[in-house]
């Protein structure tokens, strides 16, 4: 695996790959890699002949400066994990100068999908995500890109932007990888204290309970209210808990086969998200 830090070096390599008829797969990340990220790399097996993992903690997608400064970072450990796992040709870890030149003022806005759920309590977040993802697609010239279903709204927004801008990349969704207690793996989990980490298991457990009740035909407003209260009793501050369609993220009913339960909730200043389908 080669560590590449400049967009010029990356451009030289991907140009050669394209000339040689290689298919390029990319996994965009913000680092502090875990088994969820490795599952995205693995999902490219048989779909790309060359694989790039990008690591860039993108300042413009953070609405909260503390969240940006406290975001876990560790390039050496990330590089070692990828090297040990194998199958990655390039780790692209640019600094800010390679991404946002002085005077940078363009934003990619996927309107509609960006205002709800995480877009509601992280204003501007998805403009930052759509902008960096578009830039990473251009810089890596990827044919295929893997994204996790843990960040389901992000996945929907990336699909929309690829379709709307005719970008020549296909999007590969990858199911959420979970810990033994069902907590979704996330880089931010590292910021939880041991007590918070133990409590965090309430998040997937409450979603499972809520889904079982919805499927049993109980009133959906009551189920969501009870689930919200359960989470608050477990120490969470709940930002949203909503039933939405996986297809278009619009509000929906439990009888909709595409219905999915979405949650964002914080323990202290660590904000966690999760989502699960009803079917
Ligand atoms: N548990 C997981 N299972 C599958 N994919 C995941 C998981 N966690 C993250 N991903 C995916 O990895 C990619 C990079 O995400 P990112 O680097 O932000 O990691 P993260 O663990 O989601 O961190 P955080 O949510 O704390 O920012 C995204 O496509 C994301 O959906
Ligand atoms: C897609 C992404 C790498 C863009 O910064 C980020 O939002 C993430 O890690 O999910
Ligand atoms: N995993 C999504 C990136 C973020 O929370 O900013």
Automatic annotation (TrEMBL):
HAMAP family: PanC
Binding-site list for (R)-pantoate: 61, 154
Signal sequence, renumbered to the chain: none
Positions that bind beta-alanine: 61
Protein known as: Pantothenate synthetase
Keyword Cytoplasm: yes
Superkingdom classification of source: Bacteria
Subunit relationships: Homodimer.
UniProt-annotated catalytic positions: 37 (proton donor)
UniProt keyword annotations, A-Z: ATP-binding, Cytoplasm, Ligase, Nucleotide-binding, Pantothenate biosynthesis
């Amino acid at each position: 695996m080669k560590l590449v830090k400049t967009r010029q070096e990356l451009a030289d390599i991907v140009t050669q790959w394209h000339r040689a008829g290689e298919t390029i797969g990319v996994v965009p990340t913000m680092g502090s890699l875990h088994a969820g990220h490795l599952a995205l790399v693995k999902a490219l097996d048989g779909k790309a002949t060359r694989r790039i993992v990008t690591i860039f903690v993108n300042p413009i997608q953070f609405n909260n400066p503390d969240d940006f400064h406290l975001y876990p970072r560790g390039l050496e450990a990330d590089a070692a994990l990828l090297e040990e796992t194998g199958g990655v040709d390039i780790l692209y870890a640019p600094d800010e100068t390679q991404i946002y030149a002085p005077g940078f003022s363009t934003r990619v806005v996927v309107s509609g999908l960006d205002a709800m759920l995480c877009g509601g309590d992280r204003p501007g977040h998805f403009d930052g995500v759509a902008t960096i993802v578009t830039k990473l697609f251009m810089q890596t010239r990827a044919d295929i890109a893997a994204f996790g279903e843990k960040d389901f709204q992000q996945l929907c927004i990336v699909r929309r932007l690829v379709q709307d801008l005719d970008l020549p990349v296909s999007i590969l969704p990858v199911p959420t990888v979970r810990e033994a207690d069902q907590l979704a793996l996330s880089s931010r989990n590292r910021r939880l204290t041991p007590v918070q980490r133990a409590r965090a298991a309430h998040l997937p457990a409450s979603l499972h309970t809520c889904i079982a009740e919805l499927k049993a035909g109980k009133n959906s407003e009551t189920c969501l209210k009870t689930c919200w209260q359960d989470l608050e009793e477990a120490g969470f501050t709940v930002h949203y808990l909503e039933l939405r369609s996986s297809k278009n993220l619009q509000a929906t009913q439990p009888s909709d086969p595409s219905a999915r339960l979405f949650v964002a909730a914080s323990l202290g200043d660590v904000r966690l998200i999760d989502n699960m389908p009803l079917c």
